[in-house]
Amino acid sequence: MPPVSLDARTVIEQMQAVRERQPLIQCLTNHVTTGFVANVLLAVGAAPAMVDSAGESEIFAREAADGVLVNLGTPHPAQCDGIRAIDYGADTMPPWVLDPVAVGSLPVRTALAQELLSHSPTVIRGNASEIVALAGSGHGGRGVDSTLGTDEAATAARDLAARTHGAVAVSGPVDLIADASSTVRIANGDPMFTEITGGGCALGAVTAAFVAVSPSPLVGAASAAAVYAIAGEKAAGDAAGPGTFAVHLLDALRSLSAADIMSRADIS
Questions:
Q1: What is the dihedral of CA 37, 172, 161, 53, to 10 degrees?
Q2: pTM (2 decimals)?
Q3: Which residue ranges of the chain lie beneath pLDDT 50?
Q4: Maximum pairwise Cα distance, the chain
Q5: Rounded to an integer, what distance in angstroms lies between the CA atom of residue 47 and that of residue 34?
Q6: Nearest to residue 234, comparing CAs of 204, 264, 212, 207?
Q7: What's CA 245's distance to the chain center, in Å?
């Protein structure tokens, strides 16, 4: 896999591709955050579909979805059945994102994440503790919160990417996105993301939307991280607190321009 470089113009191209193609993203996701995740997908120009029952999830993934998010935030038995029902190796399976929420801390989701890892997710997106735990070199964080810095997960991210032949996105104050041969860092964002519920879940869905239209998992995941983080900066500048931040984030994602990305993107 040749090294990949990413710049602001590439991010703009990927953002415009999402808006033009409006990918349909199937979300098997955290039930605490479904409404917010759906609204964020609409704001970036994608279409959400919360199809997670075992009788429908495999059909929808195979026949309708342009991208799939599997988020393990609330892995109750019925949803686990819906997640397992999907044939991830099918020829018609679209790109899919695994968000291993709180993996390493709790047994049901940890076992399910390891099972899903064997199906080679297109992108794995999580915080540093989750990525390290999924790679087998750590024990998870404090619930859904990471106890590690992003760079502490760099080796685990590259190892996982080599195993899955995809990309791994590690969220933090500086996002790190890696595949087997390249590493991209996105130094945008705002601490207010940590003060709302669903910020990470929504990023997983945005990642699925971008990967659905992008030339490679790394380009899709890194472009999604940049767009989301820059929109967060804009939203924080207009917000009075976390309640209005969540609303302003939707507006910022909807109105984000090429000029915003060119002036703000901090990519290395």
A1: -20
A2: 0.95
A3: 141-145
A4: 48
A5: 13
A6: 264
A7: 20
Q: What per-residue string of b and e applies to 73-82 under the rule 16 or more CB within 10 Å gives b? A: bebeeebbeb
How high is the pLDDT of residue 106? 87
At residue 184, φ and ψ (nearest 5 deg) are: -120, 140
Residue 201: the pLDDT is 95
β-pairing verdict for 24-28 and 67-71: parallel
Q: How far is CA 68 from the centre of its chain?
A: 10
Identify the pLDDT of residue 141: 47
Structure tokens, 111: 């076992």
Instruction: Copy the structure tokens of residue 246.
Output: 């969540």
What pLDDT, on a 0 to 100 scale, did the predictor assign at position 149? 81
Alpha-carbon distances of 82 from 60, 134, 247, rounded to whole Å: 11, 21, 31
What does the block give as tokens for 159? 């190892």
* Gap between the Cα atoms of 218 and 129, Å rounded: 20
Instruction: Pull the structure tokens for residue 24.
Output: 């349909």
Q: How far apart are CA 109 and CA 13, in angstroms?
A: 35
Condensed to tens digits (0 to 9), the pLDDT of residues 9-60 reads: 999 999 999 999 999 999 999 999 999 999 999 999 999 999 999 999 999 9
Beta bridge partners of 126: 170
CA nearest neighbour of 116 among 64, 71, 52:
71
Nearest to 168 by CA among 202, 197, 132, 196: 132
* Residue 239 DSSP code: -
